[in-house]
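Dear support,

I submitted the protein below through the web form. The confirmation email said the job was done, but the results page showed an empty box. After a refresh the structure appeared. I'm attaching both so you can tell me whether what I see now is the final result or a partial one.
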Amino acid sequence: MGIKSLTNSIKKEAPDSIIHENLYRLSGKKVAVDASLIIYQNLLNIGNRPLFKNSKGKITNHLSGLFYKIVNYLSLNIELIFIFDGRPPSIKSETIKDRKVKSENAKAKMDNSSTQEDKDKYEKASIRLTKEMIDDVKKLLNLMGVSYIHPEVGEGEAYAAELCRIGYVDYVLTEDMDTIVYGCPKLITNCKDKTIKRKDIISIFDYQKIISGFNLTHDQFVEFCVLCGCDYCDSVPKIGNISALKLIKQYGTVEEIIKNTKYVFPENYLDLFNQSKDIFYLWKDKIDVNKLEINKSQKNIAQLIQFLVGEIEMNETKVQNGIKKIMNVHNFSLIND
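What the results page shows now:
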């Protein structure tokens, strides 16, 4: 879900913090990728078409989508490092439970659908990441020589944001605006300007300009965002983003807002709010770049082709063309089994 309507608030309060840039301008930079988000994105970013499956019935569109996405970045000499989700915080249990219920309801509707169109629609709505999907993505990354980190605990975007904050990477690639709340200096998303139709244009959010535009400290910005509503703490009746910003500017903290206003907060709200706020500081100053557990591998073109064409059943010509795009840039060479 992310922070409710945060993108709209940023466009209103800090429009100069968003620039629309051609991807090639990131050449030579290092980008941390929010793995779970980008997997979901490629699973579901297929319009009204049904999920792609191989002859064994295995869902494959996330792998084909990721392959082409990675090719686009590597062909421009942009280094990628994927960050997977670790164990989620306990406070997120209700959100996870709600998502599971929605998935199960969608599966039930799929089973009871009378048309193939409805079956396809509800199947996509029921999708949840599985260990097999994660393992297949890791296999793809290994064969393409792309590094990844899978921390034991915490959200992938939180870890990625801290890597960016301490300068280990230059940007974080995600559609999850929560990443900004962790203090991520530079966030890459799909282009937010719908008038721009070119696929090579991205949007980059600048954290310092966001803070300046909102005229808040980082701590106040975190309080504002949690007050707007997030995965860990729901919004409060009659407090939307506009009123949340006014209240934080007037009272400084949510605790003071509760004390001095007549808004109706749930009985346990402050405790839930503080737990939620703590999550946005989970990794701050806790990552030692000299002790990162990074999975690194050598590129293996022969096995990559076998995996994508033989197992995933992608079009061989398209796979070969994708590999050609990055061979000269990254000196891809055939590695035998």
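Response: this is the final, complete result; the empty box was a page-load delay. Residues 93-112 form the longest helix (20 residues).
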